[in-house]
């Protein structure tokens, strides 16, 4: 049976609370990690998924169409890659960005859209080490002549699942490209993954008949379905809680993530296409986002003092957002996650 919007939001909220609990448990089990930072992250994720942070608004006006609808959202965001609430928001933003990019494309003669899934041989390493190998493979792959000459643009996202043999990590690509031989594509990808394994000083063995890694190709017919697939979460929300404590702690303490979703070439809004666009100058990384500077504050003032400041920040943001919504949406009725109606007295 299909879930209602309320059921989806509640499931997402419960998953966030579960993740926060798992992080607190890890902080007790592993003493060689920064306990204050882990506790602060758990507090942020729990606050982000609290009922006080949720809102529902009836008679919410769409000023472009004049229609009224029921809106759902949150007042404050923790920004964590582990937070089910924030990941859902990133997924929505990615879908919007990719839909706009696809709408801008005008296929030339001999071009087509293709959905590709790139796999690697399971290295049986930690999640961070596995991600490092995958991202290095992609960095090498996008500089190869095959992509430079035949791919006009596209997007890349990453996903992993937990298996009995460790992390199964793979990349999803949506490509605007010319025709190419599928096995040549597989051969070049296999060479790049092999190089990444070699740099990591790990054995590389492929057990397929032709010695090439499995790469899945699909010609796009349902564009929205493909956009949904490439922009979904990096993993199911319960994967974080099923990890080994060591792996979860390592992920929690990452200060700078490589981009999990990347648009390049003719898909990039800032780029005007001149023949076929080189992908090699595009960066996977970036500076830590503003939402990550809280880590420095925890280090300076300690967890308890940071927790006090965090609650004050949350209260201020929540009050400002309530006032903003009520001023802009004068006809709406606003409720929090406890179904309590909110008014200007809450600002």
Brief write-up:
With 347 residues, the chain is of the alpha+beta class.
Structure characterization notes:
With 347 residues, the chain is α+β, with helices and mostly antiparallel strands. It has 11 helices and 9 strands. It has a 5-stranded antiparallel β-sheet with strand order 6-3-5-4-7, sandwiched between helices. Strands 2-1-8-9 form a 4-stranded antiparallel β-sheet, covered by helices on one side. A hairpin with a 6-residue loop joins strand 1 and strand 2. Helix 2 runs parallel beside helix 11 and helix 4 packs across helix 6. The longest helix has 26 residues. It is globular. About 6% of the residues have low confidence.
- Report the span from N to C terminus: 39 Å
Shape summary: globular
* Total of DSSP H or I helical runs spanning 4+ residues: 11
Sketch the major β-sheet.
5 strands, antiparallel
Helices and strands, in order, run as HHEEHEHHEEHEHHHEHHEE
Average per-residue pLDDT, rounded, comes to 86
How many structural domains are formed by the residues? 2
Backbone structural class: alpha+beta
Adjacency order of strands in the biggest sheet? 6-3-5-4-7
Spans of 5+ residues with little confidence (pLDDT < 50)? 271-290
Strand content: 15-25%
* Number of strand elements: 9
Indicate the radius of gyration in whole angstroms. 22 Å
What portion of residues is helical? 40-55%
């Amino acid at each position: 049976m299909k879930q209602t919007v309320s059921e989806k939001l509640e499931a997402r909220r419960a998953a966030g609370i579960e993740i926060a609990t798992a992080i607190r448990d890890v902080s007790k089990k592993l003493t060689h990690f920064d306990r204050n930072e882990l506790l602060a992250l758990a507090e942020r994720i729990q606050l982000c998924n609290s009922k006080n942070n949720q809102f529902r608004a009836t008679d919410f006006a769409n000023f472009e169409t004049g229609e009224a609808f029921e809106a759902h959202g949150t007042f404050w965001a923790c920004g964590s890659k582990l937070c089910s609430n924030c990941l859902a928001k990133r997924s929505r933003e990615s879908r919007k960005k990719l839909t706009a990019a696809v709408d801008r494309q005008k296929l030339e003669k001999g071009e087509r859209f293709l959905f590709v899934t790139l796999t690697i041989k399971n290295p049986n390493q930690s999640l961070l080490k596995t991600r490092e190998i995958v991202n290095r493979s992609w960095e090498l792959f996008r500089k190869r002549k095959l992509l430079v000459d035949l791919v006009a643009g596209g997007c890349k996202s990453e996903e992993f699942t937990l298996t009995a043999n460790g992390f199964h990590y793979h990349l999803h690509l949506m490509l605007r490209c010319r025709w190419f031989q599928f096995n040549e594509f597989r051969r070049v990808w296999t060479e790049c993954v092999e190089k990444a394994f070699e740099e990591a000083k790990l054995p590389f063995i492929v057990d397929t008949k032709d010695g090439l890694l499995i790469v899945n190709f699909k010609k796009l017919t349902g564009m929205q379905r493909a956009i949904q697939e490439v922009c979904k979460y990096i993993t199911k929300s319960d994967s974080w809680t099923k990890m080994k404590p060591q792996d979860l702690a390592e992920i929690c303490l990452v200060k700078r993530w490589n981009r999990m979703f990347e648009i390049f070439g003719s898909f990039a809004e800032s780029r005007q296409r001149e023949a076929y666009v080189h992908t090699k100058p595009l960066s996977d990384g970036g500076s830590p986002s503003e939402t990550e500077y809280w880590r420095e504050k925890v280090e300076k003032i300690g967890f308890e003092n940071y927790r006090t400041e965090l609650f004050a920040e949350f209260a201020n943001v929540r009050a400002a957002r309530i006032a903003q919504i009520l001023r802009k949406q004068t006809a709406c009725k606003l409720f929090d996650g406890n179904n309590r109606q909110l008014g200007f007295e809450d600002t």
